[in-house]
Specification:
The protein is 48% helix and 12% strand. The chain has 277 residues and is an alpha/beta fold. It has a 7-stranded parallel beta sheet with strand order 3-2-1-4-5-6-7, sandwiched between helices.
Length: 277
């Protein structure tokens, strides 16, 4: 796949999956605008591009803020003159702080232990009933609103020129539900509905819109999972290994290719078979 001179914007490109996607497009010849809320992460990503770093652009912005998103797209278009590919990857963790991770690991391990001895399961999540408005709102603002804000700006460029690729990063949390993260699951599910709707809307404009729904991927965001929980994820994965950021990046390259103009409104799941539609 040749992306020479194609202009790509990757949100949340400062670490993990977003970083690997940014590096993959850079290696394939694209001009890559790397977005993140963390400027140090952006700099690290661009530094890893090595010989391709000169074609990159650092664009710090909070995708949950529509004014910042508008300014970001203006900066990208001012630098490159256009935009061909948008990867909506920016997101936040479904778990808040070390206390949240301790609760997640402790509760999940207790439930697994109770199931293994035949039950009953007496340890309960009680996440939804205790969730605060702010936590729910923030999750939807970053994931779902951010995807909308960025897509809205991208389409102003793509539809006008009759070409574009929009790739939205969702999750298998959207397809099967993540029992300890109703807000994350809802936000990621909303992205899938948004993807299908916009794909139908812009198909006649030469713009495709697809989604990626990764399974368990080893990134800095999943590092705090306990060994038992990581093992449980791997056990439910038919290929019997955790995913790597490159597994998601390869899917993004495929969906963004110029030749791939007959696939739109679809969900690709690099999940090792843990989700099979």
């Amino acid at each position: 796949m040749n992306f020479t001179d194609r202009v790509t914007l990757v949100t949340g490109g400062g670490s993990g999956i977003g970083r690997e996607i940014s590096l993959a497009f850079a290696r394939e010849g694209a001009n890559v605008a790397v977005n993140d809320i963390n400027p140090e992460g952006i700099d690290d990503t661009i530094s890893e591009m090595g010989e391709f770093a000169g074609r990159a652009l650092a664009v710090k912005a909070d995708v949950s803020n529509s004014d910042q998103v508008r300014r970001m797209f203006a900066e990208v278009v001012n630098r490159y003159g256009t935009l061909d590919i948008l990867v909506n990857n920016a997101g936040i963790n479904e778990v808040k702080g070390q206390e949240g991770w301790d609760f997640l690991n402790r509760t999940a391990e207790a439930r697994i232990g109770q199931m293994m001895v035949g039950g009953p399961v007496t340890t309960h999540w009680e996440v939804t009933q205790n969730m605060e408005d702010g936590d729910w709102d923030q999750m939807l603002k970053v994931h779902l609103y951010g995807t909308f804000y960025c897509t809205r700006e991208a389409l102003k460029v793509m539809e006008a020129k009759g070409y574009g690729r929009v790739i939205n990063v969702s999750s298998i949390a959207a397809t099967e539900g993540l029992e300890a993260a109703p807000h994350y699951s809802a936000a990621k599910a909303g992205i899938l509905g948004f993807t299908r709707s916009v794909a139908r809307e812009v198909a006649t404009r030469g713009v495709t819109v697809n989604a990626i729904a990764p399974g368990y991927i080893e990134t800095p965001m999943t590092k705090p999972l306990s060994p038992m929980l990581r093992g449980a994820w791997i056990m439910k994965t038919p290929v019997f290994r955790p995913g790597k950021p490159k597994d998601v990046a390869l899917a993004a390259l495929y969906l963004a290719s110029e030749e791939n103009d007959f696939m739109t409104g679809q969900v690709i799941s690099p999940s090792g078979g843990s989700w099979m539609p």
